[in-house]
Amino acid sequence: MTPGTTRLEFTRRLDFHPAIVFDALIDPDLLGGWLAHAVVEPHEGGAFDLAWLTSTSFPPTRGRISLLDEPRALDVVTDNRGRFRFDLDPSPGGERGTVTTLTTAVDVVVDRAFVPRVAADWQSSLDQLDGLLRGHPVDWIHWDRDRSGAWREYLAAAGGH
Question: In this protein, which residues make up the domain named Activator of Hsp90 ATPase homologue 1/2-like C-terminal (predicted)?
Fold first, then answer.
């Protein structure tokens, strides 16, 4: 990690096989249901470009896939959102016989005052991923109404205002 980089890590247990979760990480249509409008070239060195849908004030993000180990790991380095890595670990259990522990590590260079916002963004996005996998993609037009309350709770829990 470079000096000044903050690492955030989040773990979620998802009641789905890793192949299903991994698809939601690299398929542009599925990414649009939980994270952002995406252009993805699903190979190492391929593009991973995101246009954020929750706010027009967020500039688009240009990224490159630095690791694609389907369905175990995805690592993306971006121009303005740092680096994020998803590690998927299957285990027996759940309603479908296999659950996935998804660990999301985010390395970002940002003023310390903004770390709670980054944490809230990722926690909220991971909620949205779980919702998508359960058949409920984000209704971006009504994001404020439907999801901003949870985002504010994550912000407060992370020490933000």
Answer: 17-133
CB of 24 closer than 8 Å to CB of 35: no
Residue 1, in any domain of the structure: no
Q: How many Cβ atoms from other residues are within 10 Å of residue 125's Cβ?
A: 19
Count CB atoms within 10 A of the CB of residue 59: 11
Structural domains in the chain (count): 1
Bond before 28 cis per omega within 30 degrees: no
Alpha-helix residue ranges (DSSP H) falling in the chain: 18-26, 28-31, 115-133, 143-157
For residue 2, tell me if it sits in a domain.
no
Q: What domain range includes position 125?
A: 7-157
Q: How many helices (H) and strands (E) does the chain have?
A: 4, 7
Residue 2 binned pLDDT confidence (cut-offs 50, 70, 90): low
* pTM score: 0.94
**Residue range 17-31, pLDDT digits in tens:** 999 999 999 999 999
